[in-house]
Every structure is written in C-alpha cells, then in structure tokens.
Write a structure and sequence with these properties.
Methane Monooxygenase Hydroxylase, Chain G, domain 1, 81% helix, elongated, mainly alpha, 3 helices
Length: 89
Amino acid sequence: MPHTRSAKKNLRKSEKRRALNRAALRDITLLVKNVRNAPVGSTEELQKQFNLAASKIDKAGAKRTMHANKASRLKSQLSQILNKKTAAK
C-alpha cells in the first residue's frame, strides 16, 4: 500500500485509467465481433458497424490504450472481412 499522499493519488489515478482502458478495449472487442459475425447480405449495416469499430480502434491507438501497430492490423483485418462480405453479395 502507498504511504505518501502523492503515491495514494497515483494509485487512484492508475485505477481510474485502468478501468477506462479496459472498458474501451471491451467495447472494441464487441464491435469487432459484430463486424465478424454480421450476415453477408446487409452491406449498409455492415458498413456502419465497420465505421464505428474503425473509429474506436483509431482512438484507442491514438491514446495508446492499444498499440498503434495492433490498431492498424485490426483495422486491416476488418476491412478485409468487409470486402469479402460485400463482394460475396
């Protein structure tokens, strides 16, 4: 346990940041699942889901919640899935 006031404050800050980061990553995971499990025929809905996921992924990469390379790799994978599902229509 921290002893000094500044150490206690740093602990509070890190717990708060950890909760926010975990929530952001959980949201990204759910959005990625929505894109991957979307039916093949609904292109407009799939495009909306992809745009939302890409936006969240970009924000997480910019804030360093997620590594920048992982963010770009994930967006690339999702765009490939999007292209396959829209081409299969």
